[in-house]
């Protein structure tokens, strides 16, 4: 299985801009999940609150990562592969829709399509 990767994108009608990317580093650190590394890198660049930004991931995030994405207030999450063991954005849980949380975000599974209807390639 390829390592988990995450990309933070600012999308606008004119263009999409990749702000931060991150890989998982769980071999070195049990908290080294790609989404957590992404949020930490964004915070280090002064982007702690990620309102209006999108995250693209290879696999569905786990519970811990889903909560981090909620707390950082992303707008949308796109992922390619479901995670049957601990997927928390649609497969086993749906953290992004819990009424108890003060922020919810949209989740898209499968191909990466943006609002302009263009296919976003994932390699």
TrEMBL record:
Cofactor(s) for this UniProt protein: Zn(2+)
Ranges of residues in domain CMP/dCMP-type deaminase: 1-108
GO cellular component: cytoplasm; nucleus
Biological processes per GO annotation: tRNA processing
Molecular function terms from GO: tRNA-specific adenosine-34 deaminase activity
Keyword tRNA processing in record: yes
Keywords tagged on the record: tRNA processing
Family stated for the protein in its record: Belongs to the cytidine and deoxycytidylate deaminase family. ADAT3 subfamily.
Protein name: CMP/dCMP-type deaminase domain-containing protein
Lineage, highest ranks first: Eukaryota, Metazoa, Chordata, Tunicata, Appendicularia
